[in-house]
Design a protein that fits this description.
- The protein is α/β, with parallel strands linked by helices.
- 45% of the residues lie in helices and 15% in strands.
- The protein contains 13 helices and 13 strands.
- The strands form three sheets. The protein has a seven-stranded mixed sheet, with helices on both faces. It has a four-stranded antiparallel sheet with strand order 10-11-13-12, covered by helices on one side.
- α3 links the parallel β2 and β3.
- α1 packs across α9, α10 runs parallel beside α12 and α11 packs across α12.
- The longest helix is centred in the C-terminal third of the chain and has 21 residues.
- The relative contact order is 0.13.
């Protein structure tokens, strides 16, 4: 029996390296890119455990749930952690980051999430990167949700470690991820005796055995299906054009926001510049119940109640990847309108507002 997903020829080192170059091109980076064979938590943890150690002082910016996870990893590495927490319905500012570093001059590592799909906010990385560069700290950015949805320029912004995943705005696989690594970051890793070695978390293994070896021999058998899916995903983005992909996400966000407001629903993130184009979050009483009603008619809709403590006050519309379309936005608004028992006229008004915002943003 033959099957299109089975009995594939081996993925060569040359093809693996070409996919890495595709990721580098997507990020407009001259830094080394390492494709890691797992979901993006793998390189995120690898970056922290390689870059932090006893004696380090880390500034961990918390604008959503992943910041909590990063803080736990940093403490587990023995670093002194300064948590800069801001309300989840807003973004951190470069001024807040600069003040935190001025108050704690020993800070040598900064961790930040670019776009928080879980809360719907996005942070001003370019301005923050300038402040971090001036301070001299190593800068790690979780760009899993932002890549493909909004501008992401790690070299220009001074990002030393930029971690991406393909499963959101890129519309690709979840089981493979990547990180761009600056020369400063490689030097920090090499100086850290606690940095993972001979481990699936080890980025230094990839540096020494793959990159420094001329990308001739892979460390282990690659996740072939995920790598081929990543390659196809990069090809599809190139065919559409990255500016067009980002514009489509911005249009989906504007349409969802406008339609929700026409339904009488308040966006969770109040200021438009702080709202992520990858997902729109909405303030809804009894959110879990409303989300369940909305999904009853169509379980495939990309919406869900917020996680944890947000489950009773927030609904998230995940308009990313293929779901960044006006048709999906319309379907979500209809479902929300029905779940909220909105009058038919209000739903039609919401759909018209969404269509208008989509057209104004995209064209």
């Amino acid at each position: 029996m033959t099957h299109p997903l089975l009995d594939l020829p081996p993925l060569t080192a040359e093809r693996f390296a070409s996919i890495e170059q595709g990721v580098a091109d997507l990020l407009s980076t001259q830094q080394d890119v390492v494709i890691t064979q797992g979901e993006a938590l793998l390189p995120l943890e690898g970056c922290i455990r390689s870059g932090a150690r006893p004696g380090s002082t880390a500034l961990n910016v918390v604008t959503g749930p992943y910041g909590t996870t990063f803080g736990n990893w940093l403490r587990d590495c023995g670093a002194t952690v300064v948590d800069l927490e801001v309300p989840f319905d807003t973004a951190v500012t470069a001024g807040q980051v600069a003040r935190a570093m001025a108050d704690h001059p020993r800070i040598d590592f900064v961790s930040l999430v670019h776009a928080e799909a879980a809360t719907g906010n996005t942070n001003p990385v370019a301005e923050i990167g300038e402040a971090v560069r001036e301070h001299g700290a190593l800068f790690m950015l979780d760009a899993v949700a932002s890549v493909g949805a909004e501008p992401l320029l790690p070299d220009a912004w001074g990002v030393d470690l930029c971690v991406i995943g393909a499963q959101k705005a890129m519309g690709g696989p979840a089981g493979v991820s990547a990180v761009s690594v600056s020369d400063r970051a490689w030097a920090r890793f090499a100086e850290n005796p606690a940095a993972p070695r001979r481990s699936y978390l080890s980025l230094l293994d990839w540096k020494e055995r793959w990159i420094d070896g001329g990308r001739k021999t892979l460390l282990h058998a690659p996740a072939q299906l995920e790598m081929l899916a990543l390659e196809a995903c990069l090809d599809r983005i190139a065919a559409e054009g990255l500016p067009a992909v980002m514009a489509r996400h911005a249009a989906a966000a504007a349409a969802t926001r406008a339609g929700a407001q026409a339904l009488g629903v308040t966006p969770y993130v109040g200021r438009v510049p702080e709202a992520a184009p990858v997902a729109t979050t909405l303030r809804v009483a009894e959110a879990s119940l409303v989300a369940a009603k909305a999904l009853a008619a169509d379980p495939a809709l990309p919406l869900a109640a917020g996680g944890g403590a947000l489950a009773q006050e927030m609904i998230r519309v995940n308009h990313y990847g293929p779901a960044a379309s006006v048709a999906v936005v319309r379907d979500c608004l209809r479902a929300l309108g029905a779940a909220l028992s909105a009058p038919a006229g209000a739903v039609e008004t919401a759909l018209a507002a969404a269509e208008s915002a989509w057209a104004d943003t995209l064209f």
